[in-house]
Amino acid sequence: xxxxxxxxxxxxxxxxxxxxxxxxxxxxxxxxxxxxxxxxxxxxxxxxxxxxxxxxxxxxxxxxxxxxxxxxxxxxxxxxxxxxxxxxxxxxxxxxxxxxxxxxxxxxxxxxxxxxxxxxxxxxxxxxxxxxxxxxxxxxxxxxxxxxxxxxxxxxxxxxxxxxxxxxxxxxxxxxxxxxxxxxxxxxxxxxxxxxxxxxxxxxxxxxxxxxxxxxxxxxxxxxxxxxxxxxxxxxxxxxxxxxxxxxxxxxxxxxxxxxxxxxxxxxxxxxxxxxxxxxxxxxxxxxxxxxxxxxxxxxxxxxxxxxxxxxxxxxxxxxxxxxxxxxxxxxxxxxxxxxxxxxxxxxxxxxxxxxxxxxxxxxxxxxxxxxxxxxxxxxxxxxxxxxx
Length: 389
Description:
By secondary structure, the protein is of the alpha/beta class. The protein has helices at 28-42, 86-94, 107-117, 130-136, 143-154, 165-173, 198-204, 230-235, 250-256, 270-279, 294-301, 334-344, 346-360, 365-388, and strands at 14-19, 46-52, 58-59, 62-67, 69-72, 75-81, 98-102, 122-126, 159-162, 179-181, 213-217, 240-244, 262-266, 282-285, 306-309, 324-327. 39% of the residues lie in helices and 20% in strands. Helix 1 (28-42) links the parallel strand 1 (14-19) and strand 2 (46-52). Helix 11 (294-301) crosses helix 13.
């Protein structure tokens, strides 16, 4: 089951994609993966997705091999699938040219193992800043140990991809080798400014469409630091906050925001989500642990001005004062000042909306996937040269 010495790109590649999370789960990683799989299949490649079982057998022509899994106690929405012999059978039947492991943690370790066992080229990608997450779950003392585990896994790969320059630098500084950038992508056809509606604004604001409307979209979990939006509401008492998404921290946050103008909306998808972005006055994003922050690009594509922490991969997307506002997350007044500035100047806000949309239009999923395919070809070619030698 050795890879070919050369792959005829006109025939397409066969890619086995190992991921710890996939549909029907909703998050930024799944969004990137489903668009990637869709565009790879459109371009004539074949993808086999190996993931925790979510009841899905196929996505956009790609086969999905769901493996029985159990929920993570601290985060029941996340399911853990353990490696098992059925994986080898699926790989031998599919005959991949390459294995790509996404955030290798448990199931991804099987991808690393079988890449070695079957002598297949291996690509790994890093999407979740797990060492930083530990601090939000009370396990900060394990950060050094986790970096060693990540280094041991990722350094098995011929190429490690990150979705922001900050993460490229972070992984390299911790001894992870052969690191490169996988460019951002966003669905600019789905997320558009003209989807703003009074009806959605009324829904998000709970019947106060004329009030300043702040929006958060994403996982409702401790590492997102959503509680830090509460002082912004206190400083702008006429504002309303809509929190779109769900997660293990929802009950605690509902208690934290009790008595404020906050609406926990739950999940929105498709046109409803796009309309929510387009209908808000500001997208407020306090997280300091983002490897990219895909929801920021979605907000910008919808023309929603962004107020975000100057941390992680966010500065790759947001240029302060041009297409959004960045604030120092260590400054308790940072988010307040930035949001007040945004809401105070209607003319400047319209300029930010236009510039945000322009930035998003530079980053299509087709371009991001074409870049990924070029990486795949390079890894397979180098592997073939080693075998020929």
